[in-house]
């Protein structure tokens, strides 16, 4: 079938193009995409800064309606509402067996390569050229084909746009707090970077019962978003030294610091700002291709911990429904997190607004 999609034929070239999408094979679903989140990972990929290289269709946050199922599918039928799960673990490799489905050993040959479980893609150009499915999802399109495990039921009462962002931004931020750092009630916390992931981490700190939640960013507009979503204090890093300010405001440093930027500079700031025996958790990818220099003395003499958190250490079958329930109960304010909707043809503007800090989270 012919679909329109956000197509990247080469690095730094973005088109909304008509492509061919094959029917679902055994164990796969055809999903009509009703909402797709706009994530920094998509922009990094457009720029050639992450593992998956063009040609590809962008998008991994998504929600929609099942239109058709391939042979052998048992958990879904046409008409079901679903959230796209772009991290379908195999459940049998040693890493999955240890409880880390988010870094399943199969992902490197499938999801991160932009192909389905059989090593092929369902996307092609109209003249038959091979096109990758970004993170085995390619949700910035009218339709997508995903594995059966690449979908989670969307609960009644959860809008499509909320369901879409739950699949990456929300679980990456909330999961870093609850799953990776395992924040204790009554703790103090700071979040560096107030985009969609950082704002989700702030909400995770609220859910965890933190008493002080300090947001750090370089844009006042983003800090205003942070206040709305639960930050008790804010620091503009262009106006004061964030490390010094965090130490002063928390009597020596927060118990937990979450870095949603992940640049070489903010990684060092997160570790330096954490208080004695504090935990710095890195969840951003801006410095993914660089090396950060940290002080062993800070780790050792102050008994600090430096943690990495990929996709919130998510267990999709457990966590994505849990986040939906937290939203339905009012404990996660995800409607406020979505500040602008765009048509598919507005993808370039959506990226521009995201970089400029004009939106908390944009959705196509």
Please give the structural blueprint.
Blueprint: E1 2-10, E2 13-21, E3 28-35, H1 40-46, E4 56-57, E5 63-69, E6 81-84, H2 94-97, E7 123-124, E8 130-133, E9 143-147, E10 151-153, H3 160-180, E11 188-192, H4 196-208, E12 212-217, H5 220-228, E13 233-236, H6 242-249, E14 256-259, H7 264-273, E15 279-282, H8 296-301, E16 305-308, H9 316-328, H10 334-337, E17 338-341, H11 347-356, E18 361-363
Parallel strand pairs: 4-8, 11-12, 11-14, 12-13, 14-15, 15-16, 17-18
Antiparallel strand pairs: 1-2, 1-4, 2-7, 3-5, 3-9, 5-6, 6-10, 7-8
Overview of the molecule:
This protein has 364 residues and is an alpha/beta fold. It folds into 2 domains: 2-168 and 313-363, Alpha-Beta Complex (Quinone Oxidoreductase, Chain A, domain 1); 182-308, 3-Layer(aba) Sandwich (Rossmann fold). Helix content is 29%, strand content 24%. The chain contains 11 helices and 18 strands. The strands form 4 sheets. A 6-stranded parallel sheet has the order 13-12-11-14-15-16, with helices on both faces. Strands 1-2-7-8-4 form a 5-stranded mixed beta barrel. The protein has a 5-stranded antiparallel sheet with strand order 9-3-5-6-10. Helix 3 (160-180) crosses helix 4.
């Amino acid at each position: 079938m012919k679909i329109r999609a956000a197509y990247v034929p080469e690095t730094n070239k973005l088109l909304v193009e008509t492509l061919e999408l094959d029917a679902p094979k055994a164990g796969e679903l055809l999903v009509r995409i009703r909402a797709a989140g706009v994530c920094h990972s998509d922009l990094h990929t457009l720029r050639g800064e992450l593992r998956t290289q063009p040609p590809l269709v962008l998008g991994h946050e998504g929600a929609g309606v099942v239109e058709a199922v391939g042979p052998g599918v048992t958990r879904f039928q046409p008409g079901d509402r679903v959230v796209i799960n772009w991290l379908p673990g195999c459940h049998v490799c040693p890493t999955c067996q240890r409880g880390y489905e988010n870094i399943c050993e199969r992902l490197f040959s499938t999801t991160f390569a932009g192909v389905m479980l059989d090593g092929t893609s369902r996307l092609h150009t109209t003249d038959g050229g091979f096109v990758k499915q970004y993170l085995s999802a390619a949700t910035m399109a009218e339709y997508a084909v995903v594995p059966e495990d690449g979908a989670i039921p969307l609960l009644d009462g959860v809008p499509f746009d909320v369901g879409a962002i739950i699949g990456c931004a929300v679980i990456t931020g909330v999961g870093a707090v609850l799953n990776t750092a395992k924040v204790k009630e009554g703790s103090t916390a700071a979040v560096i970077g107030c985009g969609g992931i950082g704002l989700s981490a702030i909400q995770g700190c609220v859910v965890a019962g933190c008493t002080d939640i300090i947001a750090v960013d370089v844009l006042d507009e983003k800090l205003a978003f942070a206040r709305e979503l639960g930050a008790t204090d804010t620091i503009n890093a262009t106006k004061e030294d964030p490390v010094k300010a965090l130490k002063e405001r928390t009597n020596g440093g927060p118990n937990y610091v979450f870095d949603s930027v992940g640049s070489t500079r903010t990684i060092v700031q997160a570790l330096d700002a954490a208080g004695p025996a504090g935990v710095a958790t890195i969840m951003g990818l801006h410095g993914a291709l660089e090396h950060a220099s940290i002080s062993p003395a800070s780790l050792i003499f102050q008994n600090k911990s430096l943690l990495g958190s990929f996709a919130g250490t998510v267990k999709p079958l457990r966590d994505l429904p849990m986040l939906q329930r937290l939203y339905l109960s009012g404990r996660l304010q995800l409607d406020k997190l979505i500040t602008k909707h765009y048509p598919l043809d507005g993808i370039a503007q959506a990226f521009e607004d995201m970089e400029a800090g004009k939106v908390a989270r944009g959705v196509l």
